[in-house]
Task: inverse folding
């Protein structure tokens, strides 16, 4: 059944009314009245609909069933990454959205090589990558991509979550698996990962002091664009969202 | 401590003898007699050594300690992928090696768009990517990359492993997590993933008939280059190799 991701759809009185580019999209696919489609509102809900009319500027469909989007994980994962160089941001966004992250933010820290004066300029492109990945993977939301600011800001964002993990490649750490096993019912998880050069020891100390779990993901050194995807996958696995 | 990945090192009588390009490498790093280094033999063993002499053409070091490379997982994962288009192969190789795969092979199947006449030509480049990723992530081996042939050949390779998983995005499937939880002590695992268009139903039927676990990784549709990395990570997590 064709699935549309339409944040702008108007659901009213058991009907879905689609206008503009989205309406054009339905028309291009040559769907005819009587055919079924799924419209996702980009807020986690899928509307199973039957097409009533399809004009170039307006499409109307009857809502048959309203369900929670089955692709949305039961846990909201916020990925916080030290800003990497070049297009590694794009890769992190695309893969983390596919893997199930709900929110992605980048921040500046001690060993960041990339220090854009106005990372805000990139936000539009980053958000577009998240939207494309969300559509492609059948997500029920468009994960927000944002600029978190400095390292301390990232810690503050993380601290608002139920489970807060700081992935670090050296020193005294807890195993990611044991922390996750002990928190399988967590509903919100923050994952902090570093830039190319990793975190400075004082940053790991700070994370520990403010109450984050400083975690290891094993002895293999993961690239800065690989670590977030591996970490999100581990959370999905541990919380029963990979089956 | 500097770590070298030197398949060609000659270990004899408690000494490591390094020649050629590897010797040059030690020299370039300006290591001096008396300094310690780790030499990995690319077969899973790390030799902790103390430099005795460093000439341009030959380096000799005393072996102090021999240990199993701590980055090598306890499970050997063979990744078998339907050949994707373009540089997605490169991505799969790099990320799967980082994530902990021991072996990667590509095969041809019903929905492969890319059908190189001689994929063997690409083998050298693929192997180089695996070697670079192995060095970078501190692996103890260089995972082999190969061309498996046709779909039936991939099934045959998978069938030689203890646990054989076929990742499929529709129909009747087992949850990847429940299969892995029931096989946490598996020492060899095969993971089969599809090309861009996924597998044809008859291919999934074949996999089931020959005894593979047809598995789901959740409702999110993963790109063909993302699925192998997510699957390897799940295996690492389940077998205690992500802590």
Result:
């Amino acid at each position: 059944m064709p699935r549309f991701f339409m944040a702008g759809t108007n659901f009213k009185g058991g009907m879905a009314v689609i206008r503009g580019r989205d309406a054009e999209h339905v028309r291009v696919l040559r769907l005819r009245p009587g055919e079924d489609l799924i419209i996702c509102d980009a807020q986690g809900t899928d509307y199973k609909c039957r097409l009533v009319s399809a004009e170039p500027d307006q499409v109307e469909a009857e809502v048959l069933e309203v369900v929670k989007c089955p692709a949305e994980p039961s846990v909201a994962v916020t990925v916080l990454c030290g800003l990497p160089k070049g297009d590694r941001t794009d890769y992190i966004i695309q893969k983390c959205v596919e893997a199930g992250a709900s929110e992605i933010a980048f921040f500046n820290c001690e060993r960041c090589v990339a220090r854009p004066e106005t990372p805000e300029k990139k936000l539009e492109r980053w958000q577009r990558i998240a939207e494309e990945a969300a559509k492609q993977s059948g997500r029920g939301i468009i994960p927000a991509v944002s600029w978190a600011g400095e390292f301390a800001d990232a810690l503050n964002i993380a601290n608002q979550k139920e489970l807060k993990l700081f992935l670090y490649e050296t020193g005294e750490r807890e195993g990611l698996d044991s922390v996750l096993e002990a928190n399988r019912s967590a509903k919100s998880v923050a994952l902090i990962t570093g830039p190319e050069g990793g975190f400075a020891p004082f940053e790991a100390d700070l994370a520990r002091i403010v109450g984050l779990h400083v975690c290891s993901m094993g002895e293999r050194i993961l690239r800065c664009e690989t670590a977030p995807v591996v970490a999100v996958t581990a959370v999905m696995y541990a919380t029963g969202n990979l089956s």
Chain B has a mean pLDDT of 94.
